[in-house]
Protein 1
Amino acid sequence: MKARELGAARAIVASRIRGTRVPVFVGAAVTSRCDGVCVFCRRAGGNGDDLDTRTWMELLEGMARAGTCRVSFTGGEPLLRDDVGRLVHEARRLGLGVNISTNGQLLDSRLEEIARADGVTVSFEGPEPVMDRLRGRDAHAKAVRGIEAALGAGLPLVLRSTLSSLNVDRVDEILAEARTLGARVSFAPLRSVPLGGGDPALLPEESLFRVAVERLIQQKRRGDRTVLNSMACLEHYRRWPEPAVLRCSAGRIYARVEPDGWMYACGDEVTSARRESALDLGFEEAFRRIEPSGCDACWCDSRVEMNLLHDLNVHAIREALHR
Ligand code: SF4
Ligand code: SF4
């Protein structure tokens, strides 16, 4: 285990047992701009003002001082930032692990700049007609091109697939395509917050979602490593969309910073008034003031896994160690 992962594990255990709060993981939405036109997203075609390089560098310094182990650059589309390579370098220089969440469309053209990132997560709802309908014309082809280029360059990469009414019955095809590409996939149901919701008809039908979850569980039991979600996460998904409380670690080991500098305990709370300005207060003070969160609708794959780790779920921990 690397020193950084060991530090994260220690901080998570301390937070759970002693109630300490350390922003081990940070979601940094470095831009509200997006070249995507996803039908379910409030950022689609976004073109707002972003914080400048210097401000993000200061926020990264604050994260390093506060004990952050991994920052995930997201957006909007983070690869639209001209300085994304500089932000990656600075984060790594400060000892932070860096992940980039992207729609993949610019991935092949920005590879050199982000080569020092520890990982890339690419949104992928294939097959092609589905993905193009959800994410816009040629979205699938562009994402595949980026994925192949990144994997070819040796960048650790995983896929993230949002299950909507358009693809909930196609998980086998998504897995088959992922295998062909040589990448693992983490699945999550379409959520109305913080994506913005779009057409409610895009929400997956409950019974079909459950069939999809059972299929993923079956594949995992067969030893299919293409499914990235932990078994504990999939078992949690069995309860979707009924209220299904997980012990929440948002605001305890996680914070989300939006493109305007507002910090929230959780990315699903970006419409709430419970926020602090990392811009005015600095990252550390904003985190100190942010109120730990909690809700009964935890369906984002990465936050479910984080909450399971924080809850010291041995199955989730074992799978996390073997990823
Ligand atoms: S889902 Fe992602 S890629 Fe699509 S419009 Fe929203 S931010 Fe852009
Ligand atoms: S329980 Fe709710 S507030 Fe907590 S991490 Fe999950 S979605 Fe966010």
Protein 2
Amino acid sequence: MQQTPPALVPNVSISVAPMVGCTDRYFRRLLREITRETTLYTEMAVAAGVVRNPTLLNFDAEERPLILQLAGDKPDELRRAAKLAEARGFDGLNLNFGCPSKAATAGGYGACMMQKPKSAVRAFAAVQEASRLPVSVKCRLGIQENSLSHQDESQDFFAFIEALQQAGCTRFILHARKAWLKGLSPRANRTRPPLNYDLVFAAAQEFPTADFILNGGLTSPEQGLAVARQHCAGVMLGRAVWNNPWCLAQADELIHPHSKPRATPLPQDEILLQMIALSEAALAEGARVPSVLRGLTRMWRARRGAAEWRARLATIATEQARAQSKTSLASLRLLVERQLLLEPPQKLSLQA
Ligand SMILES: Cc1cc2nc3c(=O)[nH]c(=O)nc-3n(C[C@H](O)[C@H](O)[C@H](O)COP(=O)(O)O)c2cc1C
């Protein structure tokens, strides 16, 4: 069968996964220097926490399109959090029914909601009614106690999707593996349960009026779209972006293959300079040094000067920790500028 190139997929969605400890405001802002059109997600925010402290919802308009991911099982808290989010200007809401952490399970939210579809539907309905924002769901392919317990692959999962679809959910982001709720850390829960893309594709066939976004183990937007193309409305990437943000270099063109690309993509080094300026501004506003530097550390890989880049970032981090003084990123700026003299400017490329 002849294959359609991914670039021809109409209205394809490419998004960056919600990741606690990674996709904070600073990292999202840095990503926006590389891609304008991908959809970004916040880290998971527990509804009760948002209600107590609405400043958790602060973001920069430049980060949009931006979806707030909420977790919770209490309709009242979810309703209040959704209203706050709408007022704050998010582009959509996403409900987390996939987090397998002990804290989530003990709190009754996250992946364990897949075991109680009625609560999941009530949570969805509460958020849906409380705001005019589109509401999507992010979940696993089901729940298993552990690697030894066997359950029917699809029955419970399809029933879960059907219940939510009947409640009005039209977009499902599927992390294409089950969650094992006993004996695995959240980290191991992202690698040990096997990926099952076929079940995602089967769901897309079973529920043709809903959009399904494939997530889990994808290495780049191009590779993800090649896998998901015939079945899904798009792809979501997590660790691939965290490990190498430049993998989004061509994402905007993949999303809008027929429109004229925005002004010539900036050379990487210019983007790095922009990012340094943003980081300086964030630190001047009192942002925490580790959050700001986390994004920058991932921006220079496999290039001459990468080791020096890492060393300087490490120094800045320690200086700050010791002296509690205002940090200057000027030395990084000098490094990039020197690099610009040594190497001709590079356009954004996947080989970064
Ligand atoms: C550090 C880290 C934190 C995560 N935090 C969240 C989260 O807050 N909410 C969520 O739905 N998934 C979370 N995830 C799961 C990702 O969104 C994604 O589903 C998972 O990593 C699989 O996608 P990937 O293989 O592209 O990374 C997290 C993953 C990582 C690596």
